[in-house]
Amino acid sequence: MSMHLDGIAYNWYMWWKAEKVSYTWHTFKNDFFKRFQGITEDEFFKKLTHLQQKGSVEEFTSQWEALTTSVFGLSQQQLLETYVGGLKPHLQNELKMHDIPSVEVARCKAKEVEEKIESFQARNGNTYSRRSILHTTERDKDKYTPPHMRYEKRTLEAQ
Question: What range defines the domain where residue 146 resides?
Answer without folding.
Answer: 131-159
